[in-house]
Amino acid sequence: MSHPVIEEAPAAHGDALNLLRAEIAEASDPAEAAQRAVEVLHDRFPHYDWLGIYWVDGADLVLGPWVGPEATEHTRIPIGTGICGAAAASGQTEIIADVDADPRYLACFASTKSEIVVPIFADGSVVGEIDIDGSDANAFDETDGRFLEEVAALLAPLRPRA
Ligand code: SME
Fold first, then answer.
1. pLDDT, tens digit, for every residue of 95-104?
2. Taking a C-beta distance cutoff of 8 angstroms, is the pair 79, 88 a contact?
3. Cα-to-centroid distance, 107 and ligand 1 (Å)
4. pLDDT tens digits for range 72-99
5. Strand ranges of the sheet holding 94-96, from the earlier edge strand across to the other edge
6. Angle at Cα 142 formed by Cα 140 and Cα 57, nearest 5°?
7. Which residue's alpha carbon is nearest to atom 5 within ligand 1?
8. Does the C-beta of 108 come closer than 6 Å to ligand 1?
9. Minimal CA–CA distance to 37: which of 147, 115, 125?
């Protein structure tokens, strides 16, 4: 029996997922694994200009590992605030083509034109999210969203635990 091959995602996504699995397996602890993961994503995808993981801590999101040209002042964001907080509250991926047109947007960097935020789930709850800022308008699409949802599943076991 033969099945048609449907190329749903660029090969780069499959390669990156394999590399992420290997890096996570080799890391000595969850924090190092999460740091390696953000570095792999930033290195492999040039349109991921600034990339960070926020973890849920009570009613807030707290910045974990990140990679990019500058640090953000938004290291703690209440769930419900900003695009990050909206994605954490709804559990829905947010793809924002033009951040200046979104009244929820919390500005971090003057260079940011677009943003994608993908929730990380564990046991049916949002435990964190991947936040990526792009320097071009409309930098992210649903292909990034589907890919990053797979990445999020790899990151869920890395969440900090009390
Ligand atoms: N822009 C985000 C805040 C986080 S910074 O992009 C790193 C927001 O609107 O929630």
1. 999 999 999 9
2. yes
3. 6
4. 999 999 999 999 999 999 999 999 999 9
5. 76-78, 60-67, 50-57, 125-134, 114-122, 94-96
6. 75
7. 108
8. yes
9. 147
